[in-house]
Amino acid sequence: MTLEAAKFLPLTVDAARRLGARPLLAQAVRTDRAAAACWTALLAGCGSAARRELAPQLRRLSEATSMQVGSRWWFAEGAGHRRRVAGAQENLEEAIADGDGQEFALAFVGYDHAMASAVVCAHSANPANRPARKVGERPA
Q1: How far apart are the C-alpha atoms of 140 and 137, rounded to whole Å?
Q2: Does 102 fall in a domain?
Q3: How many domains, in total, are found in the chain?
Q4: Which of 11, 90, 101, 112 is buried deepest, with most CB atoms within 10 A?
Q5: 136 lies in some domain
Q6: Whole-prediction pTM value?
């Protein structure tokens, strides 16, 4: 039996991979690893460095996302997504402070969904990324 490490950002990693967003993908993988280490520390009841190292990784992931989607989109049309990501990050930081592994895991589901949604929506909102319409075809 092979045990695999827990995955905390499967949607974000997949979105970055599919879009070929290498810097975002690299940061998402680093953040995912930091999340796994933090979760292990929470479950073990440790006050290890792993618990302190996740917050900076989350900020770096938000920065990488902002670079990927573009600051203009992130602060205009994507502001709702940015607020969702920020709210989910606050929930994560609260779970870490409380030392609650279950709350942490649940909060990460929301964070991953918010982050991946932002990346995919920004990509879809860019007219250059939309498939060309056929002659006579009306917009959806």
Answers
A1: 9
A2: yes
A3: 1
A4: 112
A5: no
A6: 0.84
